[in-house]
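== Polypeptide entry ==
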Amino acid sequence: MTQPSTPALTVDCVVFDAADRLLLIKRKHPPFQSLHALPGGFVDVGETVEAAALRELKEEAGVDGEIAALIGVYSDPGRDPRGPTVSVAFLVRPRSTQVIGGDDAAEARFVADWRGLKLAFDHNRIVADALRRRA
């Protein structure tokens, strides 16, 4: 039996600290190399989307967290120039705010002036949805 061709499954994390700063990474690799983005990445086979989100958060920013809420599912076929991806985005409550960039992140930090930034992929839309969800 042949497997159907489907989009890749990814996750994104929206994390605010107590000062309402947004956790962002700077992408180390294309696409959108050097642009700010939310921590996230591809879901591994056998992994839940929740576990993948928390793993990617730890790998890219060194932050432990807990899922607070589902923000939404983002499936625009053109959202990633590498090919079709579907992202499940979560609002995550940090358990720590010590940030260390790693994995696919050139750097990671909580950003105070995030509102004016152009983020990679459709991450501006995800953050806007997270703010509505949080309100």
Observations:
- The chain is about 20% helix and 35% strand.
- The chain has one domain: 8-134.
- The mean pLDDT is 95.
